[in-house]
Specification:
Helix content is 0%, strand content 37%. With 73 residues, it is mainly β. A hairpin with a 2-residue loop joins strand 1 and strand 2.
């Protein structure tokens, strides 16, 4: 997530009903066995999909079914 977050940065995660009030922003999520801190783009939310975006241009944009993710906060 560089330049927004750097290696060793500490973050505070609000786990209160994160999935219920989902909107564009930075989230901690679990996808398969990976724990990720990524920006979610909720433009396709009505179709049950979200964009997964890193602020680091070296990582390409991805998209996933919301059901395949666990939103931790």
């Amino acid at each position: 997530m560089a330049p927004t977050l750097g290696h060793g940065d500490e973050i505070l995660v609000d786990s209160a009903d994160a999935a219920q009030r989902l909107r564009d922003g930075i989230y901690v999520l679990r996808r398969d066995d990976a724990l990720l801190v990524k920006r979610l783009d909720c433009a396709a939310l009505r179709q049950g999909r979200v964009g997964i975006v890193s602020d680091n241009p070296a990582w390409p944009r991805d998209e996933a079914n919301l059901a395949s993710l666990t939103i931790l906060g």
